[in-house]
Input
Amino acid sequence: MKEETGDETVLDVLERRGLTRRAFLQVCAAVTSALALSPAEAARITQVLASKPRPTVIYLSYQECTGCLESLTRSFSPGIASLIFNDISLAFNDTLQAAAGEAAEEAKDSAMKKAWGKYVLIVDGAVPLAENGAYCTVAGRSAVSDLRHAASGAAAVVAVGTCASFGGLPYAAPNPTGAVPVSEIVRDRPIINVSGCPPIAEVITGVIIYYTTFGLPALDRLHRPMSFYGNSIHDRCYRRPFYDRGMFAKTFDDEGARQGWCLYELGCKGPVTHNACPTMKWNGGTSYPIESGHPCLGCSEPDFWDKGGFYRPLSVPTGHWSRAGVMGAAAAAGVVAGLGAAVAARVRQDRTHKPDAGGDTNQKTPKS
Amino acid sequence: MSRPDRVIPIHPAPAPPSVVADALMREIAAALSRYAQDGQPHVIDLSAMPLSEDDTQRLDEQLGTGEVAIEIRSLLYTRVEETRYAGVWRVRHEDPDGSMRGEQIEITDIPEIVRASAADIGRSVQRLCADRAEEDA
Ligand code: SF4
Output
């Protein structure tokens, strides 16, 4: 975690550690590459990182499973992005720090005070409102009042993970704790949602570094950065040629599954899910769920847990055809095949899974 | 980064012939003639480009290798290589574990990262003087 000094830049920190300007230029190149910056942004990065005070990041966790932090800290090859994030910017994280109890609370207060009005607040987890917030408290304080206080001193809030972004599993029907996403509590600060259960580590660090160097990135209607969430999984899926030709695996062990055909009929939510999995992949670029033979669960979308079953095919063609402009007759055939396949698969599934259908069909979560 | 040996084999539609390498070569040529005229250096970051394997191969062939190769062992490992065209350089950065962290093509007489910066030279002066003083004592 960062040392206690004033408005140091990334360049200053590297110099203080006895590294040369060459190391700094290497960092700039790696950041440019990790964020796939435009030429104009790339041309500015050296100047920005040499002149802008390094960001202070405060990371708070509420109703969550710590999977997001696991994703972040266990990223396969830590790389430069996490160097900047962990070593240079992170001022407070209650899970990672050695301090506990009152010392930890003190560390949090002093980190906030020092950068009041300027820090980036990362929130991981949903916030329960039922019973006056008693379902999640830290040091005798409810998550909701803690978050209100922390957000009032933040320049921006980054909601990491689907719980913080959209409510996640705590929000799932019947939502016994009255959980809500961060955006329900914080209304007067820019919010960037980095959804996913968990999000890709490089996406988390990438968004934070982008925000602290260039400011707010372009966001989609769900407040997710377009650069990482602009495409659907389906748009970039390497199994897409099979979808377009109507070639679907029907069970997990049939010939189609072995041949790597499209997983649409096995419940793939790729067509309605926006994330960077097919391009950035997981575990240091090893693979992503579809590449491992499993349909996409749609974990970066709101209500993914309450959509009627992970292995149930999407019932209608998705209406999301961002490649529609470039697709011809083959694509149209794909739509038709997809629709027919969905119906066929549903019939088959209903026949085989009748008894436990109840587990899949939770009532809808009440929406505010 | 990805491990092709772990991917379930599929037979994707044949990719259309890529034009990225050609476009890049045109950009390099334009930048080099600009540099020859007014000394304005130019950097192209390859990581933001959708280079296919075919593109990379074509680029390697067309740029070739020149007379100079420099290794920089700092926070990352960087290899700076002149191409067959004087003034056109390839700069590649790698992690200690060998994974690629960025690649640029620079059009300039000598890439910025090779130079010793004034600040670093200043710190060296201090260090060197201190070391000398210690020796003499
Ligand atoms: S439905 Fe799923 S497996 Fe099939 S092409 Fe789309 S994203 Fe890939």
